[in-house]
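Subject: for your reference before the review

Hello V.,

The reviewers asked for a structural picture of the protein, and I figured it would be easier to keep everything in one thread rather than splitting it across files. Below is the amino acid sequence we used in the manuscript, unchanged from the supplementary table.
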Amino acid sequence: MIVVSDHFRKGGFMHLLTHTQPPAERIKRISSVFHDRLSDFLSPLLGMLDARLDRRLVRTFSLLVASIIRFRHRQHGLLLSELGAYLLTPAKAPAGTKRISNLLRSDKWHYGLLSDWLRAQAKAAMQQWSHQPVLLHWDESVVEKPESIGA
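And here is what came back from the structure prediction:
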């Protein structure tokens, strides 16, 4: 059984793909929908981080996630200095890079915060879908070392 989100089923994205609007207007609307979806997804995490970190670091984290999603390219990756430029503006790239550095060096920041939050989200989703069969797609198209697959 394939689970389709209610948002998609009710025309949440389909109406954005119609060609009744100029291309620039469609792009703005689609971008707005995905920005709203990202904000909805990150909102609980940002609330949890806000209780532990300085507000400026939480804002940096939020902008960093959006920048990574917006500008990541699987063949080229992203450099820290590029992320700094995307975080603010190219003219303020060193300041943006410093903000990222401040976040990563903060005594209160630890990857476990993100890991624990993602684990809690996964457990909540599993409980929500516990009465439905779930289809998983296992994709091993990325070449891995044999010892990595076994782990």
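For the response letter, the relevant points are probably these. The longest helix spans residues 23-52. DSSP finds seven helices and no strands in the chain.

Happy to draft the paragraph if you're swamped.

O.
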